[in-house]
Structures
1.
Amino acid sequence: MRYQVRSAARCLGLLLAAAIGTATGALGVAVPGSADVACSTPAEPGQVASQLPPEQLMLGFRRAWPVTIGTGITVAVIGTGVDDDHPQLRGGVGRGLDLVTGSPDGRTDCVSHGTAMASLIAARSAPGTGFVGVAPGATILPVRITERGEMGQAETSLLARAITWAVDHGAKVVNVSLVTPLDTTELRAAVRYASERDVLLVAAAGSRPDGAEDPGSPDLADPPWFPSAYPGVLSVGAVAGDGVRLASSPVSPEVDVVAPGGALVAATRQRGHAIWSGTSVAAALASGVAALIRSAEPGLTAAEVERRMVATANQIPGGTGSGGYTHGMVDPYRAVTETTAAGGTRVLPDLPPRTADLVAERAAARWRSARHSALVIGLCAGLLVLGTVLAVGVRRRRTAGRPRGTGIAGPGWAGPAVEPDLPELTDSYFAVPKPPARTRG
């Protein structure tokens, strides 16, 4: 009976956890990269990193360099601009565009965020440092949409314009490491515009508030971030050196792949390096991998590049297949080298379709989870009723006919009592909320 009581208590504990997970969700937070410095503040050069941390070496992207270093591919970096005065970026950054000031030159960065992302993608080798980008042969096209790395309504509108402009000016890969919780018609149209013109968008999966609990059900997920949640965008989460998802990386079915994102070395404006972390840097690394593929296999479409990155991703200890990891960690070497024995391109599986109507999808998922929770409630209630009845019955059988103070049956004990009839569970235990109204996409 103690086992039954403990099982009931454990069931109630799981029930409470499920209820809390269903009723609450992670709140959106400001995107990473904001800072209090202004463009008028002189840039403080960072220290030069002589070596890379082990987390940054996890990708092994140097193994792909005998095949390609990304030559001939233009990668647009949308964000805070890029400082091309950094020694490892000189000669590799185009003029770009500044949508903040209206200047036809995006090579100004007040907070170093865009410079850091560009360096992770395409920084050249330099004496005295072990830092280098994934695709040092690629060209960066900077598009500046914010001075401080903050994404509000105005910046979201500029993001849509920036994507369209980058597509029209030769970008084959577009990196969006600053994302927004706002789902707008203008941004959707810009993503569709890029997809229709064979340009791959690689976006950070977003962020989670410090201390946020994971969703309480496999059917639930963190709130979506855009444009990473749109179909046709490669959404990138972040893992630490042990392969475990960073606490700041969202749990969501929209996450396609992950990349290292914990405490990575990247360039700062002017010169030197600093430590960066989060899904922003993970998306930058994945953008570099996309540039390698597009350089090595120029005949592949953007959709095929995305499929290749997903199909060649490596399983990791953290939990490949779950919402925080999905298909695994990108592998540059496998992505540019794996072929069939006959030398042809490996046949890759189709990506699962992603629903564009995210609001309806989330509502349906929450209804499924509520139905599941109601079933758990009914089962736990039934277990409690059963345990109580059995406990009373056993206690009566053990005490009937026994002298007090003895542990054996007395002379008047006539064997076990007849098992009592158990009450049937009522339908109220299995009540579930009505499903959400179907919406037409």
2.
Amino acid sequence: MPWDYNLSFGGFQGGSASDVVNLAIDTLVSGISLEERPLLAKLLEVPEYKEKYHEYLQLIIDGYFADGKFEEAVNKLDQLISDEVKNDPSSFTTFEAYQEAVAELTKLGTLRAESIQGQLDGAIPSTTEGQQADSSTLIDSSSVDLTKLGNQGGNKGPGGGGFGGSGDFPSRTDGEFQPGMKPESEQPAADAQ
């Protein structure tokens, strides 16, 4: 798994849960202005493209979130990998932290979908400027703890880095790596075995 998948749901940017849940669908940049992303800005200036983009967002909401497929997919994937996570000797976290992350991911996805739907319906401003001018309609995300989904280290999560782990490499009392724990770059060459 690529190194940064644990930061895919807002952990990398270091923003608040509200920043992630209520990200403006018609601004779609973080920490910069839309003008600094001219391709995206130009595409959103064309009414037909912006309308098509909004149609795709609505398809995702209707076909994946509104009918429970998102939560179902998270639960299926959890069932698929849960035992492996629980028994992983090289884990950077605890199984309990993993379980908390699964629940937090479901909550985050559901609230994000609610915000997108509100923006598509016009109930929530769909630009950063609009949201800054009137934040009264933003989705309340105070129950979301992004550190449970991963962070940039600094031992901020429950138990430390990762999504709840200490951020340290797993250790063995005998000081040896178990098979598969050693990075590929440290594996003996095929001809040396």
3.
Amino acid sequence: MAKSLTDATGETDGFPQDRWETLLKLIPGVVFEQRTDLSFASVGPGREQFFGSRSSEVAERSDVFLSCVHEDDRVGLLSWLRKLTPSMGLVETTYRLVHPDTGVIRYVADRRIRTDAEVELYQGVWLDQTSRIRAEKRLTYRAWKETVSTVTSGLLHDFNNIIAGIFSLSELYHSQITSNHEMHAGIGQIKASSMQAQQLVRRIMELNREVSGERNLFNLESLIADQLDFLKAILPRGTEIKANFTGEELPVRLDDVGFRQVLLNLATNARDALGDGGRIEIETRRHDMGGTGPAGILPSDFQYPAGSVEIIFRDNGCGMPTGVAERIFDPFFSTKEPTRGSGLGLYNAQLYATTNRGRIGVVTTSGVGTTFHLVLPLETFSETILPVVEEESGAGQRHHLLLYSWEDASHSDLVAEMREKTWQVLTLSNAARVREYLTQSDFPIRLIVILRITLDEDADRLLEQVRDEHPEIRIAVITMGDDPEQTPRSVNERADIVLHHNMKLSTMIKKISDLIQ
């Protein structure tokens, strides 16, 4: 006859009951004895991790155990149990258990043995295999993603070359006809659309990079606005996305690739929670003074440091049940199937916030929605003064530049090439903000690049003011659309160098580099 884990005398193979219970707690997994009719003779300690508030019922009611087995695995498990015989020895299968309180899905390896044909009793152990299985699936997905990334990058490169040809021809024809020509508006639209297509391709290629880039200066709201089209592609059709921005230039020094991935992870997290009439709100707030986080935020010690900016990502989805919100930033924690999530998205968001001297927290209400609060430090520029002084006399120095354009140029080829040379580039599209930054005594700008379109009064006024008020700063003007021979004399006189946007990019960078030296 097979022995039960605990016999009637309270002794277990010579072990006193209390020592046996202690030993069971040290064993990974949860030991159990289950009869062939699926009722349990005993269930060891640790069962709460699988069955939560119903753990005390599992040993008494077989239907509780079956109700926790994932509905897609229930029939397969019952079929497997019916086929077991004592002659098979140690057997194992894997199925999913759904936590009755939190809905968290765990992959469990069920290893059991029936040693005596006359006793209809299995002795076994449940082992949590969730982390291993999710890691395996993530590695498989990553390998596939790398393959797709390689193919996509090649296709994007070829497509970009085609668009570049369309842009160049349309720009050439557009510059050779007068504004009252019947084709002027049409060719202008082709030129503008092809430029937008090039920018979109560039953004996709940047998003496709697996390795995050170095930290650089960005205007936070421009960075978020640039990502809205991708968020729309992730979220369910019909989802409303509302951006509530301050309208200010919010300079941050961060890794833009990682930041985009954080936004996409937050959108992915919200996707499955949204129903009909889904709405996403992205809000930015500047915190010049420190303060405590909103009521109910996790972690509870969340605070806003002075001189920080807050990104609020809010959805009106189903929210999270009790017990889930406390664990969402844990690695491999997920309530989704492994094919729909690795359990690392929010964990990586937390790592990103920490790496960039920020914090992330969450407020959630079941049936109402979830709000993430990401706080990052605003760039004060004061911390870069000493490195600039130290580097001025050495090779490989890191120059600090400011680029002004009538539109957001943070993702232009020019800025990308500058950052490849490890130059720190801050892009602004508001001339008043440029002048405001330059009035800060600790602003270490060596050179200003002004992108100037035809009859650009804001750019011309900025050029005049910078030259008069900050004569120590070098100024490079890049004209867009003008014939170089028709550039106003005042621009040529005030700028240290005037370049035309048709100039080869490498030549342009070389001339700017020589100017800084």
4.
Amino acid sequence: MRFTLTLRRLFLLSLFGLVAGLAVLFWQILSVSETTLLRSAEQFQSQVAHEAAKGITDYLGQAPSAVSLFEKGMNQGLVRVGETASVRSALLSLLLADESLSEVSFTSATTVGTGTGFDKEGNRLLVPGTATEISVFRSKFGEDRIVCRKIWFDREKKRFVSESVVTEIGSRTWTPRPDAFQAVDPTDNLTFQTPASEGQGQGILSTDLHWSQLDDALPEAERRVELSFMKAMSEGGKFAGVLRVGLLKERISQAVTLEGSGLEPRRMGAPTVFLCDEQGRLIAASFDTEGKIAEVGGGDLRLAVASLPDEVRAALASPVLPTIGKPGTGGGAAATHATAPLPVLSHGQVFLCTFRALPGTQDWIVGVMAPRDSYLGPLIDLRHRLLGVSLALIAAIIVVGFLVLRGVGRAHGLITAETARMNAFDFAPSRNRSALSDIGEVLAGLERAKTAMRAMGKYVPVDLVRRLYRDGREPVLGGETADLSLLFTDIRDFTVFSEATPPDRLAVVLGRYLDAMAQAIQGEAGTIDKYIGDAVMAFWNAPEPLADHPVRACRAALRCREALGRLYDSPGWRDEGLPRFETRLGLHRCAASVGHFGAADRFNYTAIGDGVNLASRLESLNRHYGTAIVVSEAVWNSPGVREAFLFRRLDRVAVKGKAEGVAIFELLGEIGMEIPAAVARYEKAFDTYQRGDFAGALGLLEGSENDGPSRFLAERCRRYLKTPPESGWDGVQVFDAK
């Protein structure tokens, strides 16, 4: 029995391969105990992050303690903010008591009124020229030297001035030191304005890393980087000033390197520890950072490292950084817990990175990372041995999967393309083939369906089929009333030609003629109802609605005339000696019943009604008037018709079977064509004829013998001159024959 490849068999084979691959993969995963090792690695990195965070937090906690001690001294009356010596002594005591502090400053100013007023921007209202700042800080040029600087407003010089004195630790003697900078109003600094502003309350505020205000006169390379803590102080319930405590960045870097923590990081590898913000900007690191301090916006400072390790650079670019320590964002449940190790890929090597948020800072984050392989240790060799097996299996699955997907994709693409073409009513034949028998059968079925649709399209309007397809319903017997523009055409004396022409040749000639007519009609969205020998019946506004159907019908009639002219002038027509048929057209607009009519097992989509008969009669009137296109008054009166086309008013007629007269017009062409002189003479003569002045009308028609309508009207005038019409004549021309 010959094996044939089907989609089902192909799917089963692919599934078998996938299951086999997964089984091997699961066996490898279950046979290796790396889960336990990685869990230990997670605990270790979490401990390292905890120690680093604790060191930083403990260091940052020194500043709030100093603030509390100063505030306590004020409340107990030990610190009198109006006395420089008292404030300087208190600040010096705080600095000497805690070597982690780099500077302590107190800025005061006299408030306006009761001290509770603020401007529209929320800044506290101060009396100009009353600001004073006393700062005690460790000298940049000697660790054992303490500097005390005072800034105040000199009323004689009308500007702020500064005065500094220096002392050695343990000494009670202060030595004056010249200041090398222009003093400015200390209350203009944000470290004063922010805690003193409205709405800040009595809490301690902190800044990010910034240049020390005390080093403004120094070059950037010599300036200190510090972190400030500020609090607005009150005395007797009234605002007294702002205390600022500064901490140096160097101690933060020491905490990151875990100096003195007692932790032995090399017990399970050598993790890298770094401190950054949520935007991935480096603050400190345990590795050598040969770089410079750079401002990143708002005066905040960060490390600009030229040769940053690639794995650290990748960790700093992690999209999870902004979510660390923020509940509900996926970055960790709480700020006091480390995240699970996150994989970071660098140069083909996977690093495990643990993040821990630092509460009470400007969104600082501690990061700990180490190579994943450094934790797995003895499992590395086993992983390498199993890697060969895994790669071979994966390669096999990829190759087979690629071949399968390519075959199925091509087959699916063929089916999709064919169905898309059919949905777009493109039923042209195609030669698509597939090696899959299932797909081949589907494609063959689609080709048979397209053949049937092409055949049906030769009998049924494609727009009708498209509408039925779109609505998802079958045709039912019956019709609906619609406003239609109807067209009837016929060839003059075609019977004579057909009797003298062999049937086979007649079919070919008639086919070429009808093809030209059909293209012109369908080019204006017309629906061809039927061919009746050489005659054509068509209509507009069904099955698809057309707002301008009378205009389209008139244009189609003119296009038919043009198309036949090109056909008759073509070499093939002339060389065969074929005649130039004289085609007559009739146009009418009316409400007719359009739909499916016939027996239960066979329908004909057509339009019926009294207006349809009138359209047919209008076509036959052309032989009386010697015209090519006759339209009814309903078409002539339709919106947009007279703005686009030129007409000649022909007559008022009552066709066979009708008692009332209707106005008829000859469609001459589109707006812009030259109107023959005979047309104007005819319409003037017709008005004279309607008034019963037959002799006058006849006189106006002289010289128009070559104009068909003029000849027909002149004959009627002569007849009425011989035999006048009966009394009550209304000018309607009655036709008793079709």
